[in-house]
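Is tryptophanyl-5'AMP placement plausible here? Inputs below.
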Amino acid sequence: MEKKRKVSLSGIQPSGKITLGNYLGSIKNWVDIQDSDEFDNRYCVVDLHAITVRQNPDDLREQTYQLFAQLLAAGLDPDKCVLFIQSHVPGHPELSWVLSCFTMFGELSRMTQFKDKSQRHADNVNAGLFTYPVLMAADILIYDADIVPVGEDQRQHVELARDIAIRFNNRFPGSFVVPEAFIPKEGAKIMSLQDPSRKMSKSDSNENAYILVMDSPDDILRKFKRAVTDSDSRVAFSEDKPGVSNLINIYSVATGKTVAQVEAEFEGKGYGAFKPAVAEAVIELLRPLREKSLELLKDRAYLEDVMAKGAQKARDITDAKVMDIYDRLGFVRRR
Ligand code: TYM
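Reply from A.M.:
I modeled the complex. Tokens:
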């Protein structure tokens, strides 16, 4: 019998345009994992998660198309992975309800993202914002994912998904695979170009703080030239030089060079040479992605076809899983 392959699953929100942080911290790894041919891959655009903060419906729809096109442009191959939109697969919210009955109020109260977001959106601290990690646990557990490739900021949510799986398994043994976060050291946390103590985020009010995957080469160059660096001008990685260390990290992931190689390359050259070199490397890294996405976006019918096929494959897996969990809980089978 063929050995069952391990499963990799992840998701990304269509709540705005994606940044270099999203790309290096997650999407690039999804593509590498897919291409390693060692896993069954499931990746989704998590639109249900996005509505925990208010979205303009037209923008949300457009951003979902754009993000889907970018995932394809980045190299996700619908023949090699199940690529879909979360709201097309009703098993996710179905399982989420079940799991919410196995998640403690105290656990959700401790989530740092909830604390952050409820401060930032103090006028709209809705229940969805609070139970968001349960839906994320459902996204993961419904596919029996072994690994969850994410950036560092999602580690706590994956840990919670593990705890929920273990708790459910204690009551109903063998129900879920207990997943692990897959967070490669490089790229796991790309920091703001304006304040390197904070992560690069599209919700930053200063647009010089982040690079968007769809930024033009001129914008990318300008933003890197303005990036905050440290007082001396040595290109050296160290904890007390967070600005330049972030740029070294970005350059290293973009070019595949080690940190030591990057330091050697810019020995004695200073930031004046280094910043444009980082910009150039990022411009070349993102160029094919940007061009291919723009091309794909012209053909909505093709994108919708890929979405529909992905959703069908996802539903085949998740419908069976939800049935299995409902059986275990004691629900009468629906026919
Ligand atoms: P989201 O949409 O905020 O981000 C998508 C992915 O990008 C990573 N990321 C970063 N990585 C490195 N440096 C940064 N500055 C940076 N900013 C973002 C995130 O860690 C993430 O991997 N809750 C998730 C989406 C989600 C999910 C899931 C993920 C929903 N269900 C199931 C995995 C499995 C989120 O909001 O990611």
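Short version: The pocket of tryptophanyl-5'AMP is lined by residues 9-13, 21-22, 25-26, 46, 49, 136, 139-140, 148, 150-151, 153-154, 157, 188-190, 199-200 (CB under 6 Å).
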